[in-house]
Amino acid sequence: MLPACSSIQPTPSKSGPQVVRDRLAAAGDAPYSAELRALTQSGPRRLQLMEGRVNLNAPFTGHATDTTEQYTEDVVITRERVYRRATGTQGPWQEFPASAAKGGIPTDRLPQYVRLMLARSASVHQDSEPLRVSARLTPKDVESVDKAVGSNLRSASTIDADAWVDSEGRVVRVRQTIHFASDPDIEATITFTGFKDAMPVDPPPAS
Question: Which tens digits make up the pLDDT trace of 59-72?
């Protein structure tokens, strides 16, 4: 007698985009902190390097050092204001609204940013861990996630974006190659490491 054939079919493997969506959906909602390294460059020329520790999964706050070709400044980021002062000085802090200090990557909306990439036919590279998500965006696309960041990118034509999502659903790295109609490309990369509990961030004391 022939053995009975099983009607049970193997469960189909999930697509790369669905794996990323599942990771983002399963991520914890508790705030945490991480070491930040944000590098902006044009070709081999380094335009800006920011390093410090910031809070994520919550309003983007933290402490950092910001270095460009012209200056090195200490930076304190609170919910409402950003404070900057030349490193090694004791003078008054310059204050800016937090929204005015945003750059070209929506650091306080990273899960939403990855979901935007997935909605724009992103490819998911499943041969590495963390998973890398890649998509081509426009400034208007980014504006749908963060108006201030999208406005900062308004002069760009397109943005080639990559984001790395780890097994716990954290966005641990973002890289953007920003293309312009007539100017050289700019590449911006943010990397997060050393995850710990969230930390308090207060405005610096008055000088």
Answer: 899 999 999 999 99
